[in-house]
Amino acid sequence: MNDAPQTPAREIDKKTLINEQIFRFSEEVRCVGTDGTQYGVIPTRQAIAIARDLGLELVLISPDAKPPVAKVMDFGKYKYEQEKRAKEAKKKQKLVEVKEIKLTAKIAQNDLNYKVKHAIEFLEDGKHVKFRVFLKGREMANPAVGFAVLEVVTKMVDEYAQIEKDPFIDGRFVSMHTIPKKKKG
Description:
Blueprint: H1 9-14, H2 20-25, E1 28-32, E2 38-43, H3 44-53, E3 57-62, E4 69-73, H4 75-92, E5 98-104, H5 109-124, E6 128-134, H6 144-156, E7 161-170, E8 173-180
Parallel strand pairs: 1-4, 5-6
Antiparallel strand pairs: 1-2, 3-4, 6-8, 7-8
């Protein structure tokens, strides 16, 4: 029945198949017209002929369906609308900036206060902050000192930030992610 070689779906995601390219993918398609007309399950060659008679292209819309769904449409307009939607979605994306504060296990209190002060400024600007305590030499055998430093930091930034990720060991670092608290009102 269907002797055409089946192409994996991940190859199809890279580019949209049109006209003869669809025939290499499947010999039969469920064909839909531009106005929603249902042509049913027909051979791909017949669907291509319908599209050419209307001066349009046959575009594979749903390659994973059984049988695949193809639509008769103006391919240039279709690509333009896809690009327009992608640009709109990109505009609405919120880019999150993550600032990193590096600490050591034996940091002095005044140095810690200075670094936390900067972290609070970043949090007030709406940026995420990642605290990293670097473990040197024998401190690697006892990462609890890193966790202790982050516990002190947590208490210092408590009113400005909430912990997104609890402290965890990340190679030679003990890390913790914080995000700004939502402002009331």
